[in-house]
Task: inverse folding
């Protein structure tokens, strides 16, 4: 723990001294300790090492909504079974501490799981959508883009799981079109749905006083935006990741090589107390 305290000390000082918004950005790595697979990591279980990224596209939805939904429901089973790990709880504790001191805080997650919410995070933007909602695949339907959706729990998915096919494919209660996951597909844009709140992310990029990236490979549009803004504005930028790889384009990100579920509790404790629950339009 002493080594982790030494590793965390400069980050703690940076967050404590930031005179303005503390912006945290999380990727799949923050949920790995909860049993949810990463996407682009070097681990054998990384999702895109074993599956075609075309499954997560609007083109696939149009061609094969049955096959795509079956694939997503298989993924969602692991997401639904997962519980927050110490990294999620620590980020919620950091938020509580900073906000109780009158400090602005924002967490932007690329993840579609609900673990940040379960851990208690409140100032949260889910820029890639969320697994617990679905929406109509027809744009301009009241339950479709750019502003509509409905809870996944309100949809009969059991019939589809028992016998996947066109007949059991869940359909929009408003217009009868096939429903789709309420997530950002790879061939879509952040501006396609209001729930992604990308305009708020752009605003945060222009006023953040410190940025912390946790468990991200910097491979999507939102991280490119934030790295560019942070570099241009001279904002202190940090990354927590066991691999501690370099940020794209030589962006001045200080990488801390440690698992987030071990390092973030140390950061939270140093800032103001242990986490609750203990240690246990850009294209995407």
Result:
């Amino acid at each position: 723990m002493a080594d982790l305290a030494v590793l965390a000390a400069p980050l703690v000082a940076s967050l404590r001294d930031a005179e303005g918004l503390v912006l945290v950005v999380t990727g799949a790595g923050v949920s790995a300790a909860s049993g949810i697979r990463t996407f682009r990591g070097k681990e054998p279980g990384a999702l895109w090492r074993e599956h075609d990224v075309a499954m997560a596209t609007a083109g696939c939805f149009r061609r094969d909504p049955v096959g795509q939904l079956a694939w997503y429901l298989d993924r969602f089973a692991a997401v639904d079974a997962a519980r927050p790990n110490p990294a999620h709880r620590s980020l919620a504790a950091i938020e509580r501490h900073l906000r109780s001191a009158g400090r602005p805080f924002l967490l932007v997650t690329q993840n579609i799981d609900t673990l940040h919410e379960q851990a208690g995070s409140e100032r949260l933007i889910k820029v890639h959508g969320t697994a617990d909602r679905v929406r109509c695949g027809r744009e301009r339907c009241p339950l479709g883009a750019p502003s509509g959706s409905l809870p996944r729990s309100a949809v009969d998915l059991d019939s589809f799981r028992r016998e996947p096919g066109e007949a059991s494919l869940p359909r929009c209660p408003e217009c009868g079109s096939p429903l789709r996951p309420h997530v950002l597909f790879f061939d879509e844009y952040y501006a396609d749905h209001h729930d992604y709140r990308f305009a708020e992310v752009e605003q945060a990029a222009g006023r953040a006083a410190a940025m912390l990236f946790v468990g991200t490979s910097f491979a999507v549009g939102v991280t490119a935006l934030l790295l560019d803004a942070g570099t241009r504005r001279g904002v202190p930028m940090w990354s927590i990741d066991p691999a501690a790889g370099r940020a794209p384009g030589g962006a001045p990100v200080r990488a801390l090589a440690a698992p987030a579920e071990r390092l973030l509790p140390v950061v939270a404790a140093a800032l103001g107390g242990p986490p609750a629950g203990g240690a246990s339009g850009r294209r995407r």
